Amino acid sequence: MTKRFLSYKGLLLLFGIYLVLLIGIKSEMINFYWEGIFKLALINIILVVSLNLATGLLGQLNLAHSAFMAIGAYTCVFITRNLFFPGFINFLFGLFLGGMAAMIFAYLISAPAMKIPGNYLIIATIAANEIIKDLIINLNILGGSSGIHGINYYSNFSFVYLIMALIIIFIYVIKDSKYGRAIMCIPQNEMLAKSCGIDTFHSKLFVFSIAAFFAGVAGGLYAHEMTVIEPNMFDFSYSLELLAMVIIGGLGNIIGSIVSAFIFSLMPYVFNIGSELKVIIHVVIMILVIIFMKKSLILDYKRFLMDTWSDVKKKIW
Amino acid sequence: MDILNKLIDSFEMASIYALISLALTLGANINGMINFIMGQLFVISIYVIAFFCDLKVPIMISLLVAIAVCVIINLLIKKYVYDLVKRHSQMMSLIVSIGVSFVIQDIFVFVFRANPKKLFYTVNGTYKSGIIEINYTDLICLLVFLFIMLAGYLFVKYTRLGKIIRAVSEDSESTALMGIDNDKIICFVYGICAGLVAIAGSFFCITFSLADPFSGNMIILRSLIGAIIGGLGIVSGSLSKSVIGALCGGFAVGLFEILIKNYAVAGASDIFLFCMLAVYLFINNKKFLRRGKN
């Protein structure tokens, strides 16, 4: 599957979707409002795919993805305002450094938590999410709870799409490489992976931090798309929604998570759903998926449909 | 003596954290899973008491009804959600419990419209001796807290049922072979947890006299810190010790929080608490490594 996607067909598909959307925007079939929503969907795709790298391939549940995004966003805004390069180059620097900041933070929280067996990484990430939100609210330099207003608008559609495509391609490259295959065997049997000579602790740390890097980049894009950032945008329920999208798309299934991120980020705008109902729908669908997946959550939907179909056939006959 | 009175004032919040962290510890021991539903059960119990408060029912009766409602909801969620998810990894059931708690919170926000509701259950009056002043609410909370501490310890350590609970939390496969119905015991402990949370909810009602759908979320995180500091049944080894450990951990979190609020940064108490947790885990990770059974 991965080989096929990275071949010319997959790249052609990626480019074709870009052209269709671009023609739609240029000919004003998609108006400005919907263009913004499509861009948010693309940013969500970056977040969900990178979360899938940490959660699906590596098996480390991460509930601080929106906090990493917040760090990326605030760092990026700080740099675009204060660095001396001309506009867009500043923005590129900001994206990179925002990603780096998120990566360092992820390293700092995950290094102690991963040493302890059990579910302490989840608790540490939940705590990290709350800490980041509280810090932003309490620091006056970062605008406090009212946030930062009047950020320059840099994230145009083509740029966001380019970054998204690069990240998807990069994650496919990781997944296909020797290193990626080593990572993918960690969640299934960590002791076996260790005894085969894989440095599980450091590869877990590395991949977790890489996922946080992409989240930081997505945060920078988000800040320069919305032109306003507040701490309440990056709260815990957003992390939960992202995790729900990953689980609905299938752990380790990158195409699935792209599709689910796209559908679920357009859904509230299409059906005009408020934020509470949005969380309820995400989480309920996630729980239903977890309940009805028979064997494992590292799934293809194709196999799942085949299995259920054979079950139904057995019950009928 | 200002600081002493401040500490006495924090007894209500501290005993709420203590009771919920005891519930979390019991749940984590019996099932190996941290039950995040507790925060929302807390909110549910507050709203049940608020509903009966409107009908002018005395608080003891409404507390009993709230306990019943919480137990039923906890058992229903256990039967129809957790048991179906159990075959996946433990992380999945943790995520499911977080998800369910968010669903309940958002249903509450959807129904009750996010603005806090006023109650009129209050206990007035203070007890003075010298420089120390104690509100009667503080006194009630402290006494109930001490009673539950003693009763919980004796129950877990000396009764037959407590022995069975300890055995199930130690090794559920062997107890199943000895002819103990594990599922029944787990349901019983879940019921106790829900009851404790409902009592904590009634504390919240008599002290703050308001009902807020968002209050469950932060309370569960803080009492989780208390439970982890109390050992979560992993560090101390035996369940009867960890009953006292969890209660003391939760109480310490409450006291610590009031100290930070008054003498350091007012809005940033959570940051300090979580940093405390991180330091604790960082220092004690060897103990968790030795005992880690998950």
Explain what this protein looks like in three dimensions.
The complex is a heterodimer of chains A (317) and B (294). Chain A has 317 residues and is mainly alpha-helical. Helix content of chain A is 76%, strand content 0%. Chain A has helices at residues 2-6, 8-26, 32-57, 65-82, 87-113, 120-138, 157-176, 178-184, 190-195, 200-226, 236-249, 254-271, 275-292, 301-316. In chain A, helix 4 packs across helix 10 (200-226), helix 5 packs antiparallel against helix 10 and helix 11 (236-249) packs parallel to helix 13. The longest helix of chain A has 27 residues, at 87-113. The mean pLDDT of chain A is 85. In chain B, 77% of the residues lie in helices and 4% in strands. Chain B contains twelve helices and four strands; from the N terminus they run H-H-H-H-H-E-E-E-H-H-H-H-E-H-H-H. In chain B, the strands form two sheets. In chain B, strands 1-4 form a two-stranded antiparallel ribbon. In chain B, strands 2-3 form a two-stranded antiparallel sheet. In chain B, strand 2 (126-129) and strand 3 (132-135) form a beta hairpin. Chains A and B meet through helix 5, helix 6, helix 11 and helix 13 of A and helix 4, helix 5, helix 10 and helix 12 of B.
